[in-house]
Structures are given as C-alpha cells and as structure tokens.
Amino acid sequence: MIEEADQFRPDRDQSQNLLYGAGIHVCPGAALVRMQLRVVLDEFLGGIGPFTLLDGTRPVRATYPAGGYSSLFLQLDG
Ligand code: HEM
Question: How does pLDDT run across 26-55, given as a tens digit for each residue?
Fold first, then answer.
C-alpha cells in the first residue's frame, strides 16, 4: 500500500509508480513512453531553471485509467 497516495510527493520511490498499471495487464508500452518522456523532459528542463508548485494552487488528479495529474501549476523560479 502506498502511504498518502493522493499527496503530491516528488520524493517518492519511483519504482512504486502505478501510472502504467500493475500485474498481468501492466502497460506493454511503458518502456517506450518512459524513453519518450525522458527525451522530452530532458530537452524541456534543460531550457528552464528550478521550479516549485505555484502558491495557492492544488494539483488536480487525473481520472482513471489515466494516472498522475490532469493539471499541475508550476512556478519557474530561475
Ligand atoms: C503515457 C502513456 C501511457 C500510459 C499512461 C499508459 C497506461 C496504461 C495503463 C494504466 C494500462 C493498464 C490498464 C489496465 O489496468 O487495464 C495500460 C495498458 C496497455 N497499454 Fe498503455 N499506456 C501508455 C502508452 C502506451 C503505448 C505507447 C502503448 C503501445 C505502444 C500502450 C499499450 C498498452 C496495451 C496494449 C495495454 C493493455 C495491456 C493488457 O491489458 O494486458 N500503452 N496502459
């Protein structure tokens, strides 16, 4: 069981992430998408400075079968 699963905690153990499901129906496209996301995020993060969650906003959870957040407002600090 994941402690406080609804809380946005980027420091969590990434190996427990359920974005791609689990068990017999775990997403077979996960490795492809992880590689694509890494390329996109590397390029994006390489072009901006540090960021934090924007004050006064709350992350909005995505609806099943999607995982993660449907909106997450960030403030660029750099
Ligand atoms: C960000 C992108 C993606 C996310 C978040 C995602 C997420 C998921 C999740 C949560 C499941 C499990 C659904 C369940 O428990 O019934 C799943 C299943 C599946 N995904 Fe993905 N997926 C993504 C991309 C892809 C890609 C790129 C492919 C193929 C190239 C793919 C192919 C499949 C297939 C075939 C299943 C069914 C597996 C089964 O039922 O045994 N997915 N996906």
Answer: 999 999 999 999 999 999 889 888 999 999
The domain ranges of the chain are 14-76
Residue (of 42, 53, 50) closest to 78 by Cα position: 50
Rounded (5°) CA angle 19-24-28: 55
What's the pTM value of the predicted model, to 2 decimals? 0.70
Nearest residue (by CA) to ligand 1, atom 35, is 28
**Structure token digits, residue 3:** 């402690």
CA of 71 to the centre of ligand 1 (A): 21
Ligand 1 atom index nearest CA of 23: 15
Which residue, 29, 30, 2, 37, is CA-closest to 16?
Answer: 2
